[in-house]
From TrEMBL:
One of its GO terms (molecular function) is ATP binding. It comes from Buchnera aphidicola (Brachycaudus cardui). Residues 281-399 form the Mur ligase C-terminal domain. InterPro entries: Folylpolyglutamate_synth, Folylpolyglutamate_synth_CS, Mur-like_cat_sf, Mur_ligase_C, Mur_ligase_C_dom_sf, Mur_ligase_cen. Keywords: ATP-binding, Folate biosynthesis, Ligase, Magnesium, Metal-binding, Nucleotide-binding. Residues 47-219 form the Mur ligase central domain. One of its GO terms (biological process) is tetrahydrofolate biosynthetic process. Transmembrane segments: none annotated. Pfam families: Mur_ligase_C, Mur_ligase_M. This is Dihydrofolate synthase/folylpolyglutamate synthase. Pathway: Cofactor biosynthesis; tetrahydrofolylpolyglutamate biosynthesis; Cofactor biosynthesis; tetrahydrofolate biosynthesis; 7,8-dihydrofolate from 2-amino-4-hydroxy-6-hydroxymethyl-7,8-dihydropteridine diphosphate and 4-aminobenzoate: step 2/2. One of its GO terms (cellular component) is cytoplasm.
Length: 420
């Protein structure tokens, strides 16, 4: 049995024993049952979707906390520190608390092999058990049906949208991906759906499981009007709401879920709180002269949204893209929206064995205006040599791309990256 008092060593250990292919959740449920982690008295939200899960969870958490509820949040992946993945009432826990839960799970699992995500999901659930909470928010890691979070029966599930991603596990089309995400549906429970074009597979599974779907533009809706927006719901209508830093679509789906769940969220709380939610790495503007923008967009759906946001800035100078990708991603689909917008591409492999290699980066990126270097930080230093105040750097392609950029030490400019 592994036993260590260093969080970094524990995480390295979990990566080493990780099983990468998960066929069912039976073994995980068996261990969770031994740990008494299958039944919670708290109200459970489970949030799935191709994009927007993190911002939807953040909005749920903020509105619940501002309304006086005690909230536990489990989200992934982290941007800088593993500690970001679990929050209790808006605060992260210390390393010792995480290590303690790791040790206990390691003792109970015996010879059962768990994936990295299965192990840390059990750890998060153990941490929640140590607090008196009203609500637990679980962000699905990948898909839904076979995700570790799906061992818990949620009281209300959310699916933000259905895009093409993780095709090697979820399937190569929206029909298959929707079927996998619909695995979080529960009998006679509500599932709030933010996807406007629902594949038939989702309706089929909802019918089989007797899940109550609450669909956008049918049961609830939102619309933007200049510098404000409106939210229409069967339980409430809110007009003239302030704009938010996160996508309005994710704000609206969080609001819809809270009202369907029956939580007492006053109009005053909504109006005062929604514009305060701002998740790092999501169209985060670090600097404006020149523009330095980081975004964790890592699939075509997210990349297209990022492209539209960039266009709205009406930039006048050159645009430099600083990118890194995982090798199993649709790199062509991610860069396509920007092919006529980016003036210069700079790329580098990421610090993971899942990275797209230098050779792969050269293959996918435009050959006439691309420079591939050894690291994200090295690429940034080269860009700065030519950068003018009216120019912009756009850093995207993966959570790791943004993480490596933000975590870089001794960056020789006036941007205080360490305090982002």
């Amino acid at each position: 049995m592994y036993n260590n008092n260093s969080l970094s060593m524990w995480l390295k250990y979990l990566e080493k024993i990780d099983k990468t292919i998960i066929f069912n959740l039976n073994e995980l449920k068996s261990i969770a049952k031994k740990l008494n982690l299958l039944n919670f008295k708290e109200f459970i939200f489970t949030v799935a979707g191709t994009n927007g899960k993190g911002t939807t969870c953040a909005m749920l958490e903020t509105l619940l906390l501002k309304s006086g509820y005690k909230v536990g949040l489990y989200t992934s992946p982290h941007l800088i520190s593993y500690l970001e993945r679990v929050r209790i009432n808006g605060s992260i826990l210390n390393e010792e608390q995480h290590i303690s839960s790791f040790k206990y799970i390691e003792l109970v699992r015996c010879s059962t092999v768990l994936s990295y995500f299965e192990f840390i999901t059990l750890a998060a659930l153990m941490l929640f058990k140590q607090y008196s909470l009203d609500v637990i928010i679980l962000e699905v890691g990948l898909g839904g049906r076979l995700d570790a979070t799906n061992i818990i029966d949620s009281d209300l599930s959310i699916i933000t949208n259905i895009g093409i991603d993780h095709t090697y596990i979820l399937g190569k089309n929206r029909f298959s991906i929707a079927r996998e995400k619909s695995g979080i549906f529960r009998k006679n429970k509500i599932s709030v759906i933010g996807e406007k074009n629902i594949p038939d597979s989702m309706n089929q599974i909802a019918k089989e499981k007797k899940t109550i779907l609450k669909k956008i533009n049918k049961d609830w809706s939102w619309n933007k009007k200049n510098n404000h927006w409106n939210f229409i719901h069967s339980n409430i209508e809110l007009h003239g709401l302030p704009l938010t830093h996160i996508p309005l679509s994710n704000t609206a789906i969080a609001l819809s879920a809270l009202y369907y769940a029956g939580f007492k969220i006053t109009e005053e709380v909504v109006r005062k709180s929604i514009s305060t939610v701002n998740l790092p790495g999501r169209f985060q503007i670090i600097s404006t002269f020149p523009y330095i923008i980081v975004d964790v967009a890592h699939n075509p759906h997210a990349s297209l949204y990022l492209f539209k946001k960039i266009n709205n800035l009406n930039l006048t100078g050159k645009i430099y893209a600083l990118v890194g990708f995982l090798k199993d991603k649709d790199i062509t689909g991610i860069i396509n929206p920007f092919k006529n917008t980016i003036n210069y591409w700079y790329a580098a492999p990421l610090q993971t064995n899942r990275t797209a290699t230098i050779e792969q980066l050269k293959k996918f990126l435009p050959s006439d205006n691309t420079l591939v270097l050894n690291s994200i930080y090295e690429s940034y230093k080269i860009i700065r040599i030519s950068l003018k105040k009216q120019d912009a750097i756009l850093i995207f392609g993966s959570f790791l791309t943004v993480s490596e950029f933000i975590s870089a030490k001794n960056i020789e400019d006036n941007v205080n990256i360490s305090k982002i």
